[in-house]
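Forum > Structural Biology > Help requests

Title: Can anyone predict the 3D structure of DUF3450 domain-containing protein?

Hi all, first post here. I have the sequence for DUF3450 domain-containing protein but no way to get a structure on my laptop. I'd be grateful if someone could post the structure tokens.
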Amino acid sequence: MGQELVEEASEAQRAQAELQVRIDAADDASREMLVELRRLEAETRRLRADSESLAPRLERQAERLATREAALDALAETREALPAVEQGLLSRLRAWVEADLPFLKQERLARVEGLVNGMADPDLSTAERLDRTLAAWRAELDYGRELDAWRGILKEGEVRREVDFFRLGRVGLYYLTPDGHQGAVWRSDEQRWQPLAEAERVELRHGLRIAREQRAPELLTLPVSHPVTPVDAEHAL
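Reply #1:
Sure, ran it for you. Structure tokens for DUF3450 domain-containing protein below:
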């Protein structure tokens, strides 16, 4: 009987030991699961934070993409419309030169014709054509800010004579004979030269010397080439 008690005690110890092993194993698994759970929770928080910070960036990128797509669409439309715009600019430039004061007219019209011919040149890019067109416009605009004087040939019917021309921007175009006895202003409304009085020829001589930097700038009293339309005081208010 004593032996039996010993065996039962031993059996109980083994059972207790196995149970403890299973408990320890269960605890280890639980701890591992707990560690994994905490890792997953931390990963979830990180992903959520990344998602929250990423969302605005994605929205901004989407906006930029939309803006770029719109710009590309507009660029395509602009490229399609650009030839018509260039043609319009050249037509207006030609009309301007033809209606302007008759100075360097052949040279200026030749510049316009060169641009028109360049429209069909396959070796010129769109940017180059547009740049040349804008350069021609700038050259025409510059004429309006210049004083110019030169000696040239005046043609009046069959008569040709050498005179000194004076241009006051686009306001006035004049000529004076070398002896100073004859001078005139171009009248745009009548398309003819109108003779100048003696006092006006003196002013014109001063203008020629100013343009040639032989005299200090001063106020000139000369008739203008374009007709001046009085402004109604009632409409001016």
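The mean pLDDT is 80. The longest helix spans residues 2-99.
Shout if anything looks off.
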